[in-house]
Design a protein that fits this description.
Length: 405
């Protein structure tokens, strides 16, 4: 028997409550400009440190050693799936998170509005992080392109500079094996879409025609005069949190991508206020209705990708300040971690392990009294792969029977 088979055979439902707080991109590396400290070390976090002193901590490997995860693989691991076995594209996650219904055969792509110069090179991959209101306005312009070569084009704005496209065809076969047109760097032109099989090659030609038409419509707009496509994908078939763990689950996440992950796993999507306090208060209001809560904090990742050390510190301190709201209504199990690291110095996701904390009546304590990367190196959880986190949470919630005689 493998790990998942054993786990499925010993799950036992009870009335315990589990909260998983995901501080997106929380992991970092020591920064020479800030006394060689990480943002977690630099931040004033009395509540997180107090909780760490009453918990077990460690470092978690999102995918595998040296592998930098995208947000999809990073989160899939947190919910107990092996990111190397299951792939969910960003397009699907964004589309489902925005409430769009994906039909069999649909291909979705997540897009960023961007800025290009007169030579066609990208000067800002996120168009200055334009507000959602501007994205809605620009999407309405792109919606004039309704169909290309028999493929229907469905566009919906997301949060900030992001939007999603669904490609749908009733009589022509399309597939999602298409590269991103985002080169992941400024100073370069957008890439051409290319497919890896016949159905993908056909759709790639449609994508390139759509991009050409779209750029023409946006050429006089400032700063968002272009867009980049990412994560071409189709909807996978995944078991729900109830089917897998017998957990009635809810998600408190504002961004469509993370709501999409939660929706694919059968979680109830709850209101997600913009403030950290609001996220925790939403948990309190719904505490009796669900067994498992996924609470997502985006600001840490955004600050890391922007290379903004102080903004990352500020977000961490806001989480710490709001933490008593949750602690006063303490669940049976609390876990705090991230889906990946986003070091400020790298301005991107990275391969570095993330700090993790687990607290329950039965978690025990180690000798660690701070919650940051270097303290967590010495914790009782050691270093482990994220796909085992759910097993640890279920065990701490006493939701697992003994294995064997």
């Amino acid at each position: 028997m493998n790990h998942n088979q054993i786990l499925n055979s010993i799950i036992k439902p009870n009335n315990s409550k589990i909260v998983l707080i995901v501080m997106d991109g929380i992991g970092d590396i020591r920064n020479k400009n800030y006394n060689y400290k990480t943002p977690l070390e630099y931040a004033k976090t009395p509540n997180l440190d107090m909780l760490a002193s009453q918990s077990v901590v460690g470092r978690m490997i999102p995918v595998s050693y040296g592998i930098t995860p995208g947000s999809g693989p990073g989160h899939i691991g947190l919910f107990g799936f092996d990111p190397m076995d299951i792939t969910i594209g960003r397009g699907v996650l964004e589309a489902v998170g925005l409430g769009l219904e994906l039909k069999k055969g649909d291909v979705a792509a997540r897009c960023n509005f961007a800025t290009i110069d007169e030579k066609g090179n990208i000067t800002d991959r996120r168009a200055g992080r334009i507000p959602t209101e501007k994205t809605i306005e620009l999407c309405n312009i792109l919606k004039s392109i309704k169909e290309i070569d028999g493929v229907e084009i469905i566009i919906k704005p997301g949060k900030g500079h992001r939007f999603v496209i669904i490609f749908r065809s009733n009589d022509k076969k399309i597939d999602s094996l298409i590269n991103d047109t985002d080169p992941q760097a400024e100073g370069k032109p957008p890439l051409k879409a290319n497919g890896k099989n016949d159905a993908s090659k056909f759709l790639a030609s449609v994508v390139n025609k759509f991009i050409h038409k779209g750029f023409e419509l946006l050429k006089d707009k400032n700063p968002a005069n272009a867009f980049l496509t990412r994560g071409f994908s189709s909807k996978p078939n995944l078991p729900s949190m109830w089917d897998r763990y017998k957990l009635e689950s809810a998600a408190i996440a504002a961004y469509p991508m993370y709501r999409g992950i939660a929706s694919l796993l059968g979680m109830k999507l709850l209101e997600a206020p913009t403030s950290i306090e609001g996220l925790f208060e939403t948990y309190v209001k719904n505490k009796q209705k669900y067994d498992f809560f996924f609470i997502h904090v985006k600001g840490t990742d955004q600050a890391g990708e922007d290379g903004n050390f102080e903004s990352k510190v500020d977000c961490i301190e806001k989480v710490d300040k709001a933490l008593p709201i949750l602690l006063e209504n303490k669940p049976d199990v609390i876990a705090i971690t991230g889906d990946h690291s986003s070091p400020v110095a790298m301005r991107a996701h990275s391969f570095h392990p993330v700090p993790v904390l687990i607290h329950s009546e039965f978690s025990g304590r180690d000798d660690v009294i701070y919650f940051h990367e270097n303290a967590c190196n010495n914790g009782g959880l050691g270093f482990f792969e994220s796909k085992f986190l759910m097993s640890l949470l279920l065990a701490n919630a006493r939701r697992l029977k003994k294995f064997g005689a």
